[in-house]
C-alpha cells in the first residue's frame, strides 16, 4: 500500500521533474471542471474591467467638479497598492502550505491575506470619504461616475474575495479541506490574484498616468 | 504517471519529498521584484522629470512596468507557467478579445487624437 502511494507524484514532485506541474483530473482536459470554470470566469472578467477602464479613459477629463490630479493622494494609494500586492504573496504561500499538507500554516497565511485585503478596503472607503468631502460625489461629473464605478467594482471584488478567504479558514477549521482538496484553495487564490492584477492596471492607468 | 484529483495521498508517507521541495523562495523573490517595480512606478510620479521617463516616455514606461507586473503575477503567482497550456490559451482569449474590443471603442471615440472627443 505504502509503495503504491509513494509511487504517485505530488504537486511538488511533478514541479521538480516535469514541465507542467499539476495533478491530472479525470476529465478530457486533465483539468478539473472547477478550475477550468474559474479561468473561464477570469477571462470574462477581463471584458468587464476592460469596459470600465475604457469608460474611465473616455471620461477622465471632467467638465465640472475637481479633476483627478487635484484630489488623488498618490502616496496613500501607493501604500494601499503595496498592501494588496503583498496579499498576493500571502495567498500563494497559503496554496503552497496546503499542497504540503500544512493546514495550520495555510490558515495563518489565508488569515493574513484576508487582513491585508480588509486593510485595502478600509483604505478605499477612507479615500472615497475624503473625495466626497472635497466635493467629488458619484453624480458630480462623468469622470466621478466612471471613477467610482471602476474602483467600486474592484472593491466589491476584493470584498467577495475576503468572504471566500474567511469561508476557507472556517472550512479548514472544520476539517473540510484535506490535502486532496488543496485545489479549492488554489481556485480561491486564482480569484484573489486576478483582483490584484486588475488593481495593477487600475493603479497605473487611473492614478499614475497624468491627464 | 497520472493521479486523479480525488485520490487521497497522505503527505506523511512521502518520505519527506514534499517537505524538501518548496516554491516559497521563488514566491518571496517574485514579491520583492514586484515591490521594486511598484516603487519605480511611484517614483515616476514623485520625479516626473527624471531623464529615463521625461516628457513623452512617461506613459510608455508606466505601461511597460504595468505589463511586467501583470504577467509576473499571472505566470508565477497564478501558476500559468507551471499549469496546462489550455489555461493560458483560455485566459488569453478573454484578454486579447478585451484589448481589441476596447482599442476599437477608444478609436471610435478618437481618444488618440488631440481636441474634442464629442
Q: Would you kindly provide a written description of the structure presented here, covering whatever features stand out?
A:
The complex is a heterodimer of chains A (211) and B (118). Chain A has 211 residues and is an all-alpha fold. Chain A has one domain: Four Helix Bundle (Hemerythrin (Met), subunit A). Chain A is built from eight helices and no strands. In chain A, helix 3 packs antiparallel against helix 7, helix 5 runs antiparallel to helix 6 and helix 5 runs antiparallel to helix 8. The N terminus of chain A is likely disordered. The N terminus of chain B is likely disordered. Helix content of chain B is 60%, strand content 0%. Chain B folds into two domains: 82 residues; 35 residues. With 118 residues, chain B is mainly alpha-helical. Chain A: Belongs to the cytochrome c oxidase subunit 3 family. Chain A: GO terms for molecular function: cytochrome-c oxidase activity. Chain A: Keywords: Cell membrane, Membrane, Transmembrane, Transmembrane helix. Chain A: It is found in: Cell membrane.
The main sheet of chain A comes to: none
| Domains of chain A, number | 1
Strand content of chain B: under 5%
Shape of chain B: flat
Oligomer: heterodimer
Order of helices and strands of chain B: HHHH
Give me the count of strands of chain B.
0
Detail the topology: elements first, then pairings.
The complex is a heterodimer of chains A (211) and B (118).
Chain A: H1 2-6, H2 11-17, H3 33-59, H4 68-71, H5 74-99, H6 103-133, H7 142-173, H8 182-208
Helix pairs in contact in A: 3-7, 3-8, 5-6, 5-8, 6-7, 7-8
Chain B: H1 17-20, H2 24-46, H3 58-77, H4 85-108
Keywords for this structure?
heterodimer, A: 211 residues, mainly alpha, Four Helix Bundle (Hemerythrin (Met), subunit A), 75% helix, disordered N terminus, B: 118 residues, 2 domains, 0% strand
Amino acid at each position: 500500500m505504502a509503495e503504491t502511494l509513494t509511487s504517485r507524484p505530488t504537486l511538488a514532485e511533478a514541479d521538480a521533474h516535469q514541465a507542467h506541474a499539476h495533478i491530472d483530473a479525470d476529465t478530457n482536459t486533465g483539468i478539473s471542471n472547477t478550475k477550468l470554470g474559474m479561468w473561464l470566469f477570469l477571462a470574462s472578467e477581463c471584458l468587464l474591467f476592460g469596459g470600465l477602464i475604457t469608460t474611465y479613459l473616455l471620461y477622465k477629463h471632467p467638465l465640472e467638479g475637481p479633476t483627478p490630479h487635484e484630489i488623488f493622494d498618490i502616496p496613500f494609494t501607493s501604500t494601499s497598492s503595496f498592501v494588496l500586492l503583498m496579499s498576493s504573496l500571502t495567498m500563494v504561500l497559503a496554496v503552497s502550505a496546503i499542497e504540503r499538507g500544512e493546514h495550520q500554516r495555510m490558515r495563518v497565511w489565508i488569515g493574513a491575506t484576508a487582513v491585508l485585503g480588509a486593510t485595502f478596503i478600509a483604505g478605499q472607503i477612507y479615500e472615497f470619504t475624503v473625495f466626497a468631502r472635497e466635493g467629488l460625489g458619484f453624480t458630480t461629473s462623468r469622470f466621478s461616475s466612471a471613477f467610482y464605478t471602476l474602483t467600486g467594482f474592484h472593491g466589491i471584488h476584493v470584498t467577495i474575495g475576503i468572504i471566500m478567504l474567511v469561508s476557507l479558514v472556517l472550512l479548514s477549521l472544520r476539517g473540510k479541506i484535506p490535502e486532496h482538496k488543496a485545489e479549492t484553495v488554489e481556485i480561491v487564490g486564482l480569484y484573489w490574484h486576478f483582483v490584484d492584477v486588475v488593481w495593477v492596471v487600475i493603479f497605473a492607468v487611473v492614478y499614475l498616468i497624468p491627464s | 504517471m497520472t493521479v486523479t484529483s480525488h485520490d487521497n495521498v497522505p503527505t506523511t508517507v512521502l518520505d519527506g519529498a514534499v517537505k524538501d521541495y518548496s516554491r516559497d523562495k521563488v514566491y518571496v523573490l517574485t514579491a520583492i521584484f514586484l515591490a521594486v517595480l511598484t516603487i519605480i512606478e511611484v517614483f515616476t510620479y514623485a520625479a516626473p522629470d527624471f531623464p529615463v521617463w521625461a516628457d513623452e516616455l512617461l506613459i510608455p514606461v508606466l505601461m511597460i512596468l504595468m505589463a511586467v507586473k501583470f504577467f509576473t503575477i499571472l505566470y508565477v503567482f497564478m501558476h500559468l507557467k507551471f499549469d496546462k497550456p489550455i489555461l493560458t490559451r483560455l485566459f488569453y482569449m478573454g484578454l486579447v478579445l478585451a484589448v481589441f474590443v476596447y482599442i476599437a471603442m477608444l478609436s471610435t471615440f478618437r481618444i488618440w487624437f488631440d481636441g474634442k472627443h464629442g
